[in-house]
Design brief:
alpha/beta, Rossmann fold, 3 domains, seven-stranded mixed β-sheet, globular, binds NADP nicotinamide-adenine-dinucleotide phosphate, nucleotide binding, Aminoacid_DH-like_N_sf
Length: 460
């Protein structure tokens, strides 16, 4: 008779083969989509124990279905620049999975946007949205448009053209976009105006991240950054630590970064460095966030300008070198793959205690391995930065009820959601045999809810 151990080993082996087979087919069917492959691999590697325990997932072809977007829309975005020249960009929307709610995920305007980037972001969004505990499916969109250096009128014309196509595919109960890199309240406002004109009706819940005067939620702007810090606070608390007295490095100086810095400072951390895509600023006594906010949010200037007002600070013209700055807590809040294996090792050698991913997939798979094998508390993006989409879902709820909550009410809900995400991920890591591995825990917890809903709804 086979021993129990042998049975378990053979189930794990079967699950491993299932994962490998589907992953090979993902690579074959989606050639050159390297970011998408990376995001799928990260999730799949975590799922072996759950697939081994419950054969219904393979029987129902869940992996094969979950890696295939329900719909991919790619479209032309023509617009006229300030010199009267016609420009053409490419727009995308990936409606990835609607098992637990309408597609939900941001719009990114950046020259690097392509099918692979939008698919990796949309795929991650499925599990992130599931982790929030709210009824939202996964989607993502964007355009290879570079907002840098464009006038306000150019941004408006581009955004209206983008929405004149995207608007045919979205709706408050269908697909609800929001902001991401290069898309903030200004762009959401122009998109909302265009959508309203196209539809001839006021459908507040079709977009989130709106201005407060026309249906936005208080604390949405702060939500991703604050949520990132709330999550890291939970990781630290479990080890008897806090932000108080710790040195923090936060990459980027956009929406997520600024509000991660704000909350880290409020909790007693000293933020010594932040960056933009050109370089980083460093002041061991702590950066002045008021100056950074004014330069970035009001004056739209480069981060290098900071040192003109604070001559004791240094500017280094290399954004990746920010990870060479010694710190106890690292919060990558800029972009994908910004921490590679070398910089992960540098952070470890410099004594980093905790890493919380405010950006999406900012650490390469090799970098994550370095953190996890060196005892660093590591919070993966789909759990850590879920606060933004969680408050977006709260914005949808307020729109449906036609009321607005106060900043403190929304912030309190956000804190509770981040605590729940941490606990759910941690519990799953214990249940599936790798205590404290939040990558595994977040992937499994996010996956199970979506997969179970897909099974309940049949093969559709
Ligand atoms: P954002 O406001 O446009 O800011 C992005 C920041 O990152 C800018 O300071 C940008 O600098 C910098 N950056 C871009 N590429 C960089 C690079 N290679 N090295 C260093 N800095 C770089 O965008 P965001 O909304 O903060 O988004 C940041 C990240 O968080 C993205 O991964 C996004 O997907 C993720 N995220 C955002 C939200 C949200 O609610 N906004 C929610 C969840 C996750 P430049 O100005 O020079 O380009």
């Amino acid at each position: 008779m086979e021993t129990l151990e042998k049975v378990l080993d053979s189930k794990t082996e079967e699950a491993r083969l299932y994962v490998d087979r589907v992953f090979s087919s993902v690579k074959e069917r989606n050639p050159n989509e390297y970011e998408f492959h990376q995001a799928v691999k990260e999730v799949f590697d975590s799922l072996v124990p759950v697939l081994a325990k419950d054969p219904s997932y393979s029987k129902n072809g869940i992996l094969e279905r979950i890696v295939e977007p329900e719909r991919v829309i790619s479209f032309q975005v023509p617009w006229v620049d300030d010199h009267g020249t016609v420009q053409v960009n490419r727009g995308f929307r990936v409606q990835f999975n609607s098992a637990i709610g309408p597609y939900k995920g941001g719009i990114r305007f950046h020259p690097s946007v392509n099918t692979s980037i939008v698919k990796f972001l949309g795929f991650e969004q499925i599990f992130k949205n599931s982790l929030t505990g709210q009824p939202i499916g996964g989607g993502k969109g964007g355009a290879d448009f570079d907002p840098k250096g464009k006038s306000d009128a150019e941004i408006m014309r581009f955004t209206q053209s983008f929405m004149s196509e995207l608007g045919k595919h979205i709706g408050a109960d269908t697909d609800v976009p929001a902001g991401d890199i290069g898309v903030s309240a200004r762009e959401i406002g122009y998109m909302f105006g265009q959508y309203k004109k196209m539809r001839g009706q006021y459908e507040a819940g079709v977009l989130t991240g709106k201005g407060f005067s026309y249906g936005g939620s208080l604390a949405r702007k702060e939500a991703t950054g604050y949520g990132t810090v709330y999550f890291v606070e939970e990781m630290l608390k479990d080890k008897g630590l806090t932000f108080q007295g710790n040195t923090v490095v936060v990459s980027g100086s956009g929406n997520v970064s600024i509000y991660a810095m704000e909350k880290a400072i409020q909790l007693g951390g000293t933020v010594v460095a932040c960056s933009d895509s050109n370089g980083y600023i460093y002041d061991e006594a702590g950066l002045n966030l008021d100056t950074i906010k004014r330069l970035k949010e009001v004056e739209n200037k480069r981060i290098s300008e900071y040192v003109k007002e604070h001559p004791q600070a240094k500017y280094i013209n290399d954004c990746t070198a920010i990870w060479e700055v010694p710190c106890n807590i690292a919060l990558p809040c800029a972009t994908q793959n910004e921490i590679d294996e070398y910089h992960a090792k540098t952070l470890v050698n410099n004594g980093v205690l905790a890493v919380g991913e405010g950006a999406n997939m900012p650490s390469t798979l090799e970098a994550v391995h370095v953190f996890q094998t060196n005892g660093v508390l590591f919070g993966p993006a789909k759990a850590v930065n879920a606060g933004g989409v969680a408050v977006s879902a709260l914005e949808m709820a307020q729109n449906s009820m036609r009321l607005s909550w106060t900043f403190d009410e929304v912030d309190a809900k956000l804190q509770q959601i981040m605590k729940n995400i941490y606990k759910t991920s941690l519990d799953a890591s214990y249940e599936y045999g790798d205590p404290g591995n939040l990558v595994l825990g977040a992937n499994i917890a996010g996956f199970k809810k979506v997969a179970d809903a897909m099974i309940s709804q049949g093969v559709i």
